[in-house]
Amino acid sequence: MNHLLEIAQAISASGFLAYGIGCLTSRRMRDEFLRYGLPRLRVVTGTLQVAAAAGLVIGYAYPICALLASLGLSLMMIVAFGVRLKIKDPATGFLQALACFLLNLFVFQGYLIRLIGKA
């Protein structure tokens, strides 16, 4: 497997595991979701991020899991980018979402190429 792909996958998994747990447990994240105008989506977002992080880890053994998890996180980050633009966050806020989108898009395309190559 491509080492760069493995590293990107590990970075994404660890980052989204930490962020997802934070969504579920942190007062600061509770306040952030209020600021976004999406308090009802905090628990769903955190749960999906923890599940996707697990999918990325499982994806080392079962590539389809990494493919689906990275696709889900990519879509989630497109939405996050739009939310941050809508609330007029400073550039650092939406650039973080954009960077996470690109990271997961890289993982997705890496696994897509890998899986298509095996077909």
Word description of this protein:
This protein has 119 residues and is mainly α. It has one domain (3-114). It contains 5 helices and no strands. α1 runs antiparallel to α3 and α3 runs antiparallel to α4 (63-86). The protein is globular. The relative contact order is 0.15. The mean pLDDT is 95.
What's the domain count? Answer: 1
Mean of pLDDT: 95
Main sheet: strands, sense, barrel: none
In terms of DSSP E residues, the strand content is under 5%
Structural shape: globular
Rg, nearest Å:
15 Å
How many helices in DSSP terms? 5
Q: First CA to last CA: what distance? A: 16 Å
Total strands: 0
Low-confidence blocks of residues: none
- SSE pattern: HHHHH
Secondary structure: helix percent = over 70%
Give the structural class. mainly alpha
Task: Compose a concise summary of this entry.
The chain is mostly helical.
List its salient traits:
119 residues, 5 helices
What's the SSE blueprint?
Blueprint: H1 3-25, H2 27-36, H3 42-58, H4 63-86, H5 91-118
Helix pairs in contact: 1-2, 1-3, 1-5, 3-4, 4-5
